[in-house]
Amino acid sequence: MAVATVTDWTRARPQPSWLARLLDYKPFLVVACLLPAVGLLTVFLTYPLGLGIWLAFTDTKIGRSGVWVGLENFEYLMSDPQFWSAVFYSIFYTAVATFGKFGLGLWLALLLNNHLPFKSLLRAIILLPWIVPTVLSAIAFWWIYDPQFSIVSYVFVDVLGVRDKYFDFLGTTWPARWSLIAANIWRGIPFVAISLLAGLQTISPSLYEAALLDGSTAWQRFRYVTFPLLLPILAIVMTFSIIFTFTDFQLVYAITRGGPVNSTHLMATLAFQRGIAGGELGEGSAIAVAMIPFLVFATLFSYFALARRKWQQGEAND
Amino acid sequence: MDAWTIKEEIVVYIITRRGSIKLGAGAAAALALSNGASAQIPKADAAAPKLPIESGATLRVLRPARFVEPDEVIFRANTEKFAKETGVNVRVDFVGWEDIRQQTAVSANTGAGPDIVLGWAEDPHVYTDKLIELSDIAEYLGKKYGGWMFLGEKYGKRAKSNNWIGLPFGGSTGPIAYRQSALKEAGFDKVPSSHEDFLKLCQALKKANKPAGFALGNAVGDGNGFANWLLWSHGAYLVDEDGKVAINSKETVAALKYLKELYPNFVAGTMSWGDPSNNRAFAASEVWLTANGVSLYFALKNDPATKAIADDTNHAPLPSGVIGKQPQSALVLNAMVFKHSKFQNAAKAYLTYMMEAEQYDTWLTGCLGYWAHPLKAYNASKVWESDPKLAIYREGMNNQFWTGYKGPITQASGTVAAEYIQVQMCASVASGQATPEDAAKEAERRTKRYYRG
């Protein structure tokens, strides 16, 4: 009797449609939601990367599909002094420019973190070199370094009269290399400075007050308060900066095209020069692929060396 | 002077914008004036090939960006005239000089895209099997207009055959451009043709503080033009007739040794010169003798601020050295028609139409002879008499050298130029980074890579 009553009370629930059931099915939902992202990544990231790696093992030229040649491109590059010069300069360029950018960028960030009149305006101005399209700033530097029309030469020779010959910025190996590094540092500082400034502003003023009460010097406050708390941001910014610098292309290509006599080729410009201008797509891809281990190493280095801290695991600082 | 000199022209025209604007107005005038000027071009009787135009035909044409305004204005006007007369709608796309080679490659490989490409010199030879033969119209034009000039045939015909796969539209050359006053001051009344005297001239110019200068940086046009001159005038060459690499020779070493003596007399900074550098330095009276296309002179002439420099400027052949002929080639504009075109007759008719005197002479004149003609009859064009300083460009397509001389015209020769192999060989010697022998060996190693079959 009682059983019958219960049965009467239960209203027949309408069976959900197959679509509703499908959408309630979690594994399907996961796949469906991820699909657009995976599709985009496959089409715009995995495919070009995979194609680039594939091309590196063929002798494809522009206008002619190639055949699989195994490691032949890499073997040739191993014996190619130009390639090694590009590897050397890429590392040198990245190391020196990153060092310069972080030294000056951090300094600038600390200055901007003080209370200055027109603070926001100043910060906006600081960002300018980074906002200007690279090619435009490259062209500006191209003029600055011009053997005949350089403003620097003009000031030193024609205005101040302290030199009797124009600077030859780009005519010989080392001056050309340093000139490009200077241009890269100039361009990279704002990114570092503004990012670090953001990091600085997250540091609680109470920590400084406590340090002051303990009678710390300015250096001690920087060393024991600012620096450790800035480190997570520093690691991320440095990782990005190294990647951007190592894969830099526009500055070098617009200013020197890798000259004089190939001494300022970076791996990226050499890859483009061989692959597109020279038409040897296979060889150019091989150079580009050869950049990957360096990038992976640089990323891992800055990540682990600078950021091996618990904040990565989401725990509190020690 | 080689492919890609166009970039230099563009930059020059950015710099002297005033001149450019003036030229813009001048272009329309030139267009109006030169109509009817074609009357003086001698024509022989020749039966035009029968090219029944397909019904509903439309054409797409790809060509490099203009170097001066009239190039584009008149090219479009001629195209429009063709469209009006035949009812064939033609769309012309002007693409950047750096991109056209890649776009040609894509079009050839995918079998889609433009019907006609006016590309660079070697390109038809790279895509031979993707192109239709143009022998009928080339032979007709040759017959009608007094025959093709040397580079016209060289770049038009498939290697070792009489089959035309390209239709050269014109070529640009880069002889010596110099300041007459400087030459006089150095004690010369003309640019000497022997290496020895040319060295003396450069030394004297240096002493007079009016130095010469040639690009030794990664300048595709000017750098390769200078390197080619240096090698060819010493009897050296990149590859032999069969395409075997022959750059590492005693002639090359001799040429590089000569460069070692010549280079210290250049204006400072030529190691980092790009294509526009010598134009700028010349316009600023920083360099007094260099090699360049006609554009240099015209940029000066059209800008009132540099008119005086233009009046003092003259052109001379490159020193011929031991070879006895002009050791230079030309940047050739070479037309091709793809097999995938649905309207091949229309395409051929269009190309023929553009090469006929009524259209071609207008274009040649409007461009001030920048693209020197490939057909002999156009020697009579008025443009060559309009300014005696232009005369040297008239025979541009008759130069007996080509990119990758003495070998067949292939993709590899284009790559060697694009990779600056010869330029860097010269630059490494001039800067003292390598001995002539080592530099020649390195150039050989790199060249072999691209000629490896």
From TrEMBL, chain A:
Q: What is its main location?
A: membrane
- Domain of life of the native organism: Bacteria
CDD domains registered for this protein in UniProt: TM_PBP2 (cd06261)
Q: Does the record bear Transport in its keywords?
A: yes
Location relative to the cell: Cell membrane
Q: Which GO terms describe its cellular component?
A: plasma membrane
Q: Which InterPro entries match?
A: MetI-like, MetI-like_sf
What region holds the ABC transmembrane type-1 domain? 87-304
* Gene3D superfamilies documented for this protein: MetI-like
User: What family does the database annotate?
Assistant: Belongs to the binding-protein-dependent transport system permease family.
This one is known as: Sugar ABC transporter permease
